[in-house]
Amino acid sequence: MALKTASASTTVLITGASSGIGTEMARQLASRGHGVTLVARRADRLEELAAELAKQHKITATVIPCDLRDPIARAELVEGLRAGPALAGLCNNAGYGISGKLIGNDPDRERQMIELNVVAVHDLTVRVLPGMIERGTGAILNVASTAAFQPLPGFASYAATKAFVLSFSEALNAELSGTGVSCSALCPGPVKTEFAGVAGSTMMEDSLPDFTVVSAEEVARQAIDAMENGSRTAIPGMANQIQALLGRISPRSLVLPLAGRISGH
């Protein structure tokens, strides 16, 4: 078991904990007795969530407002954790997408997305890994997406960031074999969260049938199960599992036009 039994002397860090899947992962962890460290930019939401979890589950919920696009802030975040409970788990959940053709998108916003979706995930993983290996236990969960399994016109950079997260996590999980530490990739498909609004388009979400959409609660449950089991990947929803398989094995000449139509590009 990579994510060991909950203890008062340990905590699990969740980035992007102020909404959506991140909030639900925090609730799942707290319901299983884990202390949580909640990280996001919106301190007010984190404080509300921390109060809820502490009251309902009698666990310690720590709030750390942080903009993970800032490398100095990331370093300070990890350094500050050294004074607290040992890190039993890390959920690299923070991230966002940008819709539209690359040529029409804001270059600065594209760069910031890559900093958050890729560089921050890699940076936090590298920083917390030595301590986990030294203790012989720990679980890292990196949130990828079913967008990782094929190129996605209209979300070109976003899909590429998630392809990195998936490949990185799968390879790292293999490297960690025998250490007591695992790295899992969570690959959700469409989820009812704030993602579409931030991305600037609900077209893809609106065009998909309801049976492909999995609740944030169910995604979070499967995410924490994956951490406990040390699973390499978790893809919530049968339709999304089929889509991921087809994305892996289908010729790009077929995948790209279909993906473009679904995304509205």
From TrEMBL:
InterPro entries: NAD(P)-bd_dom_sf (IPR036291), SDR_fam (IPR002347). One of its GO terms (cellular component) is membrane. GO terms for molecular function: oxidoreductase activity. The keyword Oxidoreductase applies. It holds the Pfam family adh_short. The keyword Oxidoreductase applies. PANTHER family: DEHYDROGENASE/REDUCTASE SDR FAMILY MEMBER 7B, SHORT-CHAIN DEHYDROGENASE-RELATED. This is Unannotated protein.
